[in-house]
Structures are given as C-alpha cells and as structure tokens.
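DM from R.C. (forwarded with permission)

"hey, sorry to bug you on a friday — could you get me a structure for this? deadline for the figure draft is monday and I only need the backbone to look sensible"
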Amino acid sequence: MVIERTKDEVIIRIPAEDDVEGLQDFIDYLTYREATSKSKATQADVDALAKEAKSSWWADNKHRFNK
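My reply, with the result:
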C-alpha cells in the first residue's frame, strides 16, 4: 500500500489482489465520514429520524408479516 499526500488530496494505492470486500467496507466508511463531516445533527436528531423511519417502514410493510 502506498499513501501519497498532495496539496489537495490523499491518494491511497492498494494492490489489485487485495480483498475487495474489505476495501468496499473501508470506502463505505470514508463515504459516510465525508457525508457527515459538516453535519450539525445531534445524536438526539439522529435517533428521532431513525425512530420516524422505522415506524413509517413498519406502517407501510406490516401487512407483509400479518398474514
């Protein structure tokens, strides 16, 4: 693995034969970090959004489980 820092970015070179699944997990984590880096949401905000999403999902899908 080679890590190179330029003025504007960090470049990571990884051999092609490395574990693709592990690399994808790492890339997903970096994508998450980038997406949330400027978020002003609190943990309470995130918890409320998750609760709302779960209840909405259940309302839309409970018929699939109550047969």
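R.C.: lifesaver. The CA atoms of residues 61 and 67 lie 12 Å apart.
me: no worries. Residues 2-64 form one domain.
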